[in-house]
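Example 3.2
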Amino acid sequence: MESSNGVPAKPPFGPAGRGGAGEWSEGYPPGRPERNKSRANEGVPFFRSIQFKYALTYLLVVAAILLVMNTYPVLMAENMVFASKESTLRRQALVIGSTLSVSETLTREGVEQTMALLEEAQGARVLVTDALGVILYDSSTLDNRVGGSALMGEVAAALRGKDASRSEYREGAVHTRAAVPIMYHGMTLGSVYLYEHDTEQAEVLRSILSNLRYISIVICAAALVLVVLLSKTLTRNTVRLLSAIRHVREGEYNHRVESLGRDEMAQLADEFNQLTDRIQTTEEARRRFVSDASHELKTPLASIRLLTDSILQNDSVDMATVREFVSDIGEEAERLTRISEHLLALTRLDAGAGRTPEPVELGAVAEKVAHLLTPVAQRADVELRCTLEPACALLATEDDIYQVAFNLMENAIKYNLPGGRVDVSVSRRGDRVVLTVTDTGLGIPEDDLPKIFDRFYRVDKARSRAAGGTGLGLSIARDTARLHGGNIAAGPNPAGRGTRFEAEFPALREGDGM
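Structure, written as tokens:
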């Protein structure tokens, strides 16, 4: 389209429609790089998994219990049998020894006669020796050792005047030995030695051991099944959480974990779901922000390109038109500068970067901003009035508070009506200091109030662009206020038409000074 003098018409400035010439599309492709999809299905080898470690731990505990169960009862039973057998044999040996200790000497014939009269030690082999350990009597009919030497440790102990006994389990029988000295007026005349081979008690021990073995096998089988079930149950939430983390790692921020139970793993699943909710919200905000920022930057760039093309491709453009186009290019460049500065300010706020806070008098800052904006208000035919209370200090940086006050007061002037008024007040409410900016402009629709602090949001896009707005000022002001523990709220003007903004901050307390 050309103008009446044959010069290409200037491209329209203002809110260009989405999808127009030079505009970026509304959607913003995230362009996530390709990832190795096989990693999403990667697994931990079973022998290195938590399930295996749980199972191995339980099996070791069960094995230890079974080991104790198969040793301690058997040992206790053996000790009881051994103690009973040794006690019985020692008692019998003492009876025989006391019977033989009626004379000063022991003879083979005397011992045989005495033993023929005794019924003790039935079932046990009895040996009687003299003081030198020579066997005077042996009840065995198969291996009679009368006349030989009794080379047994128990006999040697008995000849030294001590009772001795010993038991052992071998070859399917309980072997018990006991020996006592034969004393006469303090002298050792000889010894009585008893030996018993008991298969009945051995059978009892074998039965106990066999029963314990069968019980252990049953317990092992049951424990193995329970260990598998328990290890799977305990690691189920862990496996689900690990799978969910892999999904989120691949960009599926809407993936959630079903929490089962009320234990720590269920709480961990709930925390994970809350974390992914926040990540998803942040990612959506990031995409929206990048899309909006790209769109805002693209519009002035497209206008500058069209203007420069119009100048370069038309040799018949007069100097006045060139100057007009160059002036428009300068305005678009200034707009790009403002957008870039605001984006950098938001980046610093998001990163939490800031200077060291110091006591700042809110009224003094508001007065300085009002003095600077008075010429702007006069050109817009807007009356600027200030009501500033003293002693309204806060702990912040003067530049940050200046930024908040400037954005609120400048917006109140720019979006006001000719003949309108802007009222600025600074007051203290308890432990808060409040900056209130009220205008008599067109106001903000109620549906738009919750969104005006969103980045790049504009209520009236055409008027905002014409006024040089970027849609970032209120967002920067709110984030700056929150950085210092404050907040900004917006609402209709209680006195009538217009809007009211209130920025509140924690008041300076005693001892907060630097």
